[in-house]
Amino acid sequence: MDHKSLDAWNVSVELSVDIYSLTDKFPKVELFGLVQQIRRSAISIPSNIAEGCARSSAKETLRFLYIALGSLAELETQIIIASKLGYIKDEFIVNEKITKVKQLILGLIRYLISV
Q: What superkingdom does the record give (predicted)?
């Protein structure tokens, strides 16, 4: 399975780019705290999708898709925290993309389980 052809991978890459732009506006004091953590979580999502697709079995692919889901949950939590701290004015756009990525990953998981 080529990860670059998957909507889950493509949308999660877009999300990562959005997150980098968003966190550029955070206070400098957060550079090695929340900014770094949010960026790591965001990058982990497409990276784990790609790594899972490079594996030889559906079982291994599923493991990495579940890791990607975990990173997505981390990211969602960190966005909520950043919003409550006042670093994000409108989290709706990011949350919309997070929801989309979650649906796409869950769709891949359902497909692999059914095969």
A: Bacteria
